[in-house]
Design brief:
Layout (H helix, E strand, L loop, with lengths): L12 E5 L2 H13 L6 E3 L5 H8 L6 H26 L13 H28 L20 E5 L6 H10 L4 E4 L1
Antiparallel strand pairs: 1-3, 1-4, 2-3
Helix pairs in contact: 1-2, 3-4
Amino acid sequence: MSSAHASATGAPVKAVYKHLDSLLQGIHDLQAAGHRDFTVLSPIPRHEIEEALYRGEPSPVRWFTLLGGIFGGTMVFSLASLTHANWPMIIPGGKPLVSIPPFLVITFEGTILWASLMTLVGLLLNCGLPFTNPPKQMEDPRFTNDCFGIVFTGTGADTSKIVHILEHSGAVEVTHG
């Protein structure tokens, strides 16, 4: 382990982990200390990391999907109904001018279209994409090869406490500054 303790606040901190268990311990220890503003980097997607970070909370993307579906279905049904009402045809037999069954197919298609588009928007917003100009601490090639990492950028907390937590959670390297 390499680190130099500093009492400065707000310095970026990077911890490198060789093993998933140590990373999960580091995440748990940081959350127990009240820290939430860190980024976890992994060479492969692991559901254990997601569970540790979000503690079983469902994704907010589902609300984008729901609202997009409601919006799309309502708007497409309204468009079809208002268009049919503005240019009425002579309908024999006393049938209603705006009838639900003929508009169900286009309403369904509009619901699916808008729900999928809003899911994409919600995914991009919640993932922070596009991610341009990442901090230098995140550009470590080990994070895309075989190591896991936790990166704090511009923390508001005491850096020496964060470094201490990361070192004692099993990080093989902790750097700051």
